[in-house]
Amino acid sequence: MQKNIRNFSIIAHIDHGKSTLADRIIQECGAVSKRELSAQMMDTMDIERERGITIKAQSVRLDYIRNKEHYILNLIDTPGHVDFSYEVSRSLSSSEGALLVIDAAQGVQAQTIANVYIAMDNNLELLPVVNKIDLPSAQPEKVLEEVEEAIGLDCTEHNLVSAKTGEGIKELLNSIIDRIPAPTGDELAPTKALIYDSWFDNYLGALALVRVYDGSIKKGQVIQILGTKASHQVLNLMYPHPIKPQNAKELKTGEIGIVVLGLKTLDALQVGDTMSDNKNPCKEAIAGFEPAKSFVFAGLYPIDTDKFEELREALSKLQLNDSSISFEPESSTALGSGFRVGFLGMLHMEVIKERLEREFNLDLIATAPTVIYEVVQTNGDRISIQNPSELPPANKISRILEPFVKATILSPDEFLGNIIKLLNDKRGRQVKMDYLGKRVLLEYDIPMNEIVMDFYDKLKSCTKGYASFDYEPIGFEEGKLVKLDVKVAGEVVDALSIIVAEDRALSKGKEFVKKLKELIPRQLFEVAVQASIGTTIIARETVKSTGKNVTAKCYGGDITRKRKLLEKQKAGKKRMKAIGKVSLPQEAFMAVLKLDN
Questions:
Q1: pTM
Q2: Which of 157, 337, 393, 419 is the most buried (most CB within 10 A)?
Q3: 195 contacts 226 by C-beta, under 8 angstroms
Q4: Which residues have CB under 8 Å from 479's CB, separation 6+?
Q5: Would you tell me how many other CB atoms lie within 10 Å of the CB of residue 195?
Q6: pLDDT of 69-107, one tens digit each?
C-alpha cells in the first residue's frame, strides 16, 4: 500500500559512515543472511571498496515489519565526495526524505552543508542522525548545536546511532516510518515515472532505475520515453536488492524499481527523462535535472599507439555505466592519437583512468588537466576552449573568460592564517567568514583552474587534514591569462602547454623547466628545456649529456690524437642534437600538477 512506502536517501560528508549505516539498516530489516553480509554492501565496485569511498549512488528495496504492519523502505546510499555531488542531487529528487548523517567526533563539515542545501531545494524531510557515538571523542550534544547554528535545522527530534555496533538502528527505523512522509501520487492516473539512473548490463542490455510518480508499470506494457518519443516494450521488472535484483510483475505508484527494455545503447534512456504509457501518455513530463557537466578535461593516450581503437571501445563501454564522462578524439605531436576526456573533478579523473587500466588492461598517459575557457575574438566570435593548444593567436584574442567556483571551507580557527594565504595565492576573493565556536566557515570565489590541480592536497597539508572543502560553479569572469608553452630540444610539446595567469607566468615557467630537467632522462646529447609565451623564451634549463670517455684507449702520446677524437665526438653529438628525439616519461606530464609544491 502506498501509505506504507518510504523513499529516503542517506547524505553526509566523506567518511561520516553512510555506507556502514546502510549495511546496518539492511541487516536490521533482514534483507540478507549473516553468511551473505559483508562490509559496504552497497559499494559494488572493487575500486570503491579499496579506496573506501562511494562513487555510484545505489538503491535497495527493504521490507520491514512493525507491529504486524508491513512497510517498504527504498534506501538510496549516496557518495560523499564533491566530484560525485550530481549523484546526490539525482537521488534526492526521487526521495521524500533524507537522513543527514553527522560524525559525532568531527561535527558539521563543508559537504554536510552543501548536501543540506540540495535536500532543502527538493523540499525533503530531513532527519538529523549523529553517527559514531561509540567513539571516546564523541560529543553528540555539541554536534547537534553546531547543526542548528550552521544550518538552521531544528534538531529537537534526532537520532543517536553507532553504525559500527548497531546501537540506535531500530529507533532510527521507527523515526523513518514516523517522520518521512509516504509518497503522494494518483494510482489511477496515466503512467508517469522518472528515470533517475541508467546503466548497461552485458546480458540484459540498457537498464533504467525509475521512481513511479503516478499510475504503474506492468510487465509486457508498451511504454513511451517522452524525451525521444520512442516506444519500447517492458521485458522485465525488478526490485533493487543488495545481493541480486528480485523479479517483479508491476511497479506501483511511489515505488522504485528497475525496468528492462532490452536496448543495446543508453541513448534512449537519458537520466532525467520521463517514462509513460504509449497509448495514454501523461500530459507533461516530470521536471528532470541538469545533465552532469564536465568541469575538468585531460588527454588520455595509450602508451602503445596501436591500442587507440581499444581505448575508444573501452571509453564507450565505460560511458554506458557512467554517463557523466564525455570524450572526443584528439592528436598530439608528442603523444600520437588519443582522446580528450571530460571529468567531474580530479578524483573522478583518477577513478576513470584506474578503471580503464584495470578493467581493460590498458597502459595510459594522462596529460595535465584543464578547464573550459571562453575566448572572445577580435571579430566578436565567442569560442570555448578545452585544450590550451586550441587557443587562437594572441593578436586575434580580445579577452579570455575563465570559470569561477564558490568554495566553502570549514576548518579549526587555528589554521585560518594558512588557509587565507593559500586562497590568496590561488587568486581567491573572500565572500564571507563566520565563526562556529572554535571553527571558521569561509566562502571564497576562486578560479576553477586554481583548484583542479593540487588545491585539495595543499588545503589538507596546511590544516593538518582537518579542513573540509566543497565547491559549486558560479559562471565565467574575465581574466588576464596567457598560454605557457614548453619546448624540449627545440620542439613545442603541445601536451605540456598550460594556461596561466599573466602575472605568474614567469615563476611558473621557471618552476616547470626546473622540474622537467630532473625528470627527463639524460641523452647522448645536450637537451634544452625552455618555457615560452608566444615567441618569447622566459626560462631555460639544460639536461646535460651522458659522457663517453673516447680518449680512454690513448695512453700518453701526441695530444693532437686526443683532440681529434674529442672533436669527432663533438661533431657526432651536434648531428644527434639536430635529428635526435627525446622520449618524455609519464612523470613529465604529471609534473604540471605539482608545479607549486
A1: 0.69
A2: 419
A3: no
A4: 400, 401, 402, 447, 501
A5: 24
A6: 889 988 876 665 555 555 566 666 778 888 888 988 888
